[in-house]
Amino acid sequence: MGKNVEKQYSSRELSAFCLQISILLSSAIPLDEGLSIMAEDADSEEEKAVLMQMSEAVEPGDPFFKALEETKSFPPYVIRMAKLGQQTGTLDQMMESLSVYYEKEYILMRNIKNAITYPVMMVFMLLVVLVVLFTRVMPVFENVYEQLGAQISPVAQSAISLGGAFSIGALAVSGIAVFCLAVIWIFAKFGKTFHAVERMKDWMKRRNRIALSVANRRFTSVLALTLKSGMELEKGLTMAMELVDNSRVEEQIRRCGEELAEGTGYYQAMKDTGLFSSFHVQMIKVGTRSGRLDQVMEEISSDYEEQADTAIDDMLARFEPTMVAVLAVAVGLILLSVMLPLAGVLAAVG
User: Fold this and answer.
1) What is the pLDDT of residues 200-212, one digit of tens each?
2) String of b and e for 21-49 (b: at least 16 CB within 10 Å)?
């Protein structure tokens, strides 16, 4: 068997991989042969080595989930669901569902990254513009006024000095923040974390509407997938709790599992722990009674996905006019500082 290759698949790569495996299984192509074909078109040598390793593992009859686990390249969730799919004889459907899950995960994370990148770039450009205006443009006008025998008022000079100092300071702080984030990101790549940073991230995730929507989407999506595969709700809750990456939602899931263990019904347990809104609780009640709880969870997952997208759009909608207003006020004050002395000079000449 080949040597383990430490390649970690991204959400998009996982989606494509799971879809290809689903197609192979549906087409009745032997997995070892299909994995070899996939390896021929691999984008990198690492991926090719991983696929060949799995092909060699399944050829003598080893379970597919074991081959996934031995590569150390796939998340535990994929391995567990692959195992469940093989045990229930629904591996092809399971891999297709995993493909959809990771495709949505990729799109959602991409939207969040874009939503964060845009405001950061806007703030940076705003600070650069203000620094140039206060430190380069205004001194030119001051020299011109001195040559004409006029001067900018003390109040305007104070405002310009204060604005220049503030802009330079804010730009310096932004640069330091970017440097610190880059250092944290590099350390995270090597598995090192900072306790203070983790506490801050946890605090933000517990309160941010986007983070809560993302966590709930993951939770309901995983729960729908596990219920569809025939897994008990209690076990599905445990698996979902490991993927939400939000301590607030984790606590709610844990309390829900405890109530279920004590004999409380699905509907009542989810209502008492505050996992869902009243509207979603009603949907769960109907799904529980009709035996279609998995479909209900899929609908709720789509709803949370829309909530996350809406929260991102709302954030950008509030941010854009704020930046425009700040820049308009700053430019307006600068123009007033320039035009008022100029008007005085023209009046004296006239």
Assistant:
1) 878 887 888 888 8
2) bbebbeeeeebbebbbebbeeeeeeebbb
